[in-house]
Amino acid sequence: MTTPALTVHPLRDSATMLRRNLKRMQRYPSMTATLILMPVVFLLLFVYVLGGTLGAGLGGGRAEYANYVAPAIILMTVMSTVQGTAISIAMDMTEGIIARFRTMHIARVSVLTGHVLGSILQAMFAVAIVTGVALLVGFRPHADLLGWLATAGFLVAVALAFVWLCVALGLAAKTVETASNTPMPLVLLPFLGSGFVPTDSMPAGLRWFAEYQPFTPIIETLRGLLMAEPVGNKPWIALAWCAAIALGGYLWSKRLYNR
Amino acid sequence: MTIAVTGLRKSFGDQVVLDGIDLSVPAGTVFSLLGANGAGKTTTVKILSTLLGADAGDARVAGHDLAREPDAVRAAIGVTGQFSAVDKLLTGAENLRLMADLHHLGKSAGRRRVAELLDQFDLAEAAGKPVSSYSGGMTRRLDLAMTLVGSPEVIFLDEPTTGLDPRGRRDMWQIVRDLVAGGVTIFLTTQYLDEADELADRIAVLDHGRVVAEGTAEELKRRIPGGHVRLRFAGEQDRDAALGILGEASRDNDALVLRVPSDGSLGALKTLIDRLDDRSVAVDELSLHTPDLDDVFLALTGRPTDEKVTR
């Protein structure tokens, strides 16, 4: 008997798995709706409830604050979506079909890359909606077309990094409940940075943390790109963080999936 | 041998699940691993289908070493486990399409195969409905149909009829027979004795991680005491004459019936008939009683079947 050629098709299999995940999202739209709702609520809260006072602190008013906070809310949208990835990965792992995939001769990683690609598309969809709402409540970005494209590209990089981290968190979680809790810091960390107020108003210890944590350069880059302000070396620091998180998350996920 | 296993061992912590089992399954046959819950059936299937590594032992499936060429094994096998391996959010057709795409069947060949399987498994009508709305039997049929998309050489069926109603079981049995007729090798686990009896060419009885007996259903039954020949006589005279000739015979509840212990082989029957014939004892009716697999299970594992095995 001749052995058939055992080639794997990672791209083709990933595309197949992506189609599976997109269909699952369509069948379960309440998940996507929940993920979008949270940043929208935060946006309305910060602009209308807190925006007047916080804007005064920035030397302006509600309009100035809407411009300040919108990039942080957009980032929060990405984090909210990838948190959903951890949940859907954990849910998927409880399904018998994953055992079937493991006994099939397919590119093993495609089960995960399908989720990753699906989540990035879901995140971009959510970002588009949240950005639309932000524009409605007074967000006035100054970015030109190139700035918008750079923003989109940058957000994809951020989503890619954190989605791999969340895939690992979802795989590591023993229950679906755990998977919905462990990524929580990702939603809260922008608060401990320059997301909602400038870091110089914070006490020394917190300010030190805020300046060196990954979300601060990410938010500063986003804000710079959207408001067409100089960004200095912030994008490079942010992208370095993203690369490190993506690689760490990918390797961790791969190890967990193959165990 | 399509499946050849020697000295397979697996423990989870202190608990020994497989204590050195040997199995061999010729191509194109149905092999059944029979055992109670916890005997190690599912662990065996998980190891042979590359889901789990063994602690020791050698195994070859479809000509490939399990430990060294797991991908080649995966390319040759199909697995339908105890728990449904379907995507409940997708429709039946979408599930099959997913399998066709993962087997790289191509657009038109994939569509043809999906339509063919939907038809064969009586799922065409429900093809567009989400699997979450399917009955247990439909889900099981879809599950098996998904396993067949890639036309595997070897199919592992882990308790394929557990939880199905009688009709669903009979449908599943017919599907298995059709598959074997098509040349596929089937490795089936079951806790139902009648299922192994019905389908399997060879049966291995698994108990506490060991194979305690192996053979055809007939061979297993013959190994077990309890087989007898039942003789009915026209009158008491013949009965008493027979009782005199056949010392080992015993009376039955029925006054005109005698039970003669026998292994049921042709030779033993011929001897018995000759002895009665020599003395011109008239026998009204003769029937042969071989022990069923329940007796086998009891004799081999020392436990009555109803305690550990469901009928």
Automatic annotation (TrEMBL), chain A:
Keywords: Antibiotic resistance, Cell membrane, Membrane, Transmembrane, Transmembrane helix, Transport. It is a multi-pass membrane protein. It is found in: Cell membrane; Membrane. Pfam families: ABC2_membrane (PF01061). Belongs to the ABC-2 integral membrane protein family. The chain crosses the membrane at residues 28-48, 68-91, 112-139, 145-171, 183-199, 236-253. This is Transport permease protein. Residues 30-256 form the ABC transmembrane type-2 domain. It comes from Paractinoplanes durhamensis. Its main location: membrane.
TrEMBL record, chain B:
Its main location: membrane. It comes from the Bacteria. Pfam families: ABC_tran. Residues 3-233 form the ABC transporter domain. Keywords: Antibiotic resistance, ATP-binding, Cell membrane, Membrane, Nucleotide-binding, Translocase, Transport. One of its GO terms (molecular function) is ATP binding. It is found in: Cell membrane. The keyword Nucleotide-binding applies. It is a peripheral membrane protein. This is Daunorubicin resistance protein DrrA family ABC transporter ATP-binding protein. It comes from Paractinoplanes durhamensis.
